Amino acid sequence: MRGNIISYYEMCQREGTSLQRGMNFRLRGRHSVILMSLHPNAPYQDRVEEDGSVLIYEGHDEPRTEHVRNPKAVDQPEFLPSGNRSENGKFHKAAQDHNSGLKHPDIVRVYEKIKKGIWSDNGYFHLVDSWRESDGSREVFKFKLVAVEGVSREDAPEDEHDTEAKRSRIIPTRVKLQVWKRDGGKCVECGATDELHFDHILPYSKGGTSLKVENIQLLCARHNLAKSAKIQ
Fold first, then answer.
1. Which domain holds residue 224?
2. What is the pTM assigned to this prediction?
3. What is the pLDDT of residue 229?
4. Whether 119 contacts 8, CB under 8 Å
């Protein structure tokens, strides 16, 4: 469920692998996974646009080696020394193939680091575009992803019925941090500290906003489900 607060260990369990990289193309041949951070000191310049419906994600650097002492000084790689595509290259090819009309957009699940030990499941996105640009000293990759609802449980990259998914939105990081501090990292209903969720007090579908702290609260899974049942 979008907005769930989880630990790094829980993320790895959910995806069935150790998420040691920020970019993970088509895990088990299905959806891809990326890890993002919008903190000022984050290593990459990710950003959210269009009221939380679009994510611009920066590609990743060369690994640090004895030949590459400063990865921030060299262009982000599209290919590995072996000639195979890097994760940048895999995501880039998928986005360009979609732009060329060769395939449907890949499905990407996005996890966001809120603070140390605290992650948020930002849900599913469609990978719709990619390009290279200069950051002033080198070439970096940029990937455009659009938040969607209604992704099938199979999470298959080529599922045609996923291409018409309704556009969704994510809650801005600044709002999440303020809500977490205000609610003390606990469910506002019962004080639980596990299985927490960032909940819209007035649902987005009913005119609620993701942009104001006043419309977001922390709920545990039990109270989130109870509220959803009442709304339905």
1. 171-232
2. 0.86
3. 52
4. yes
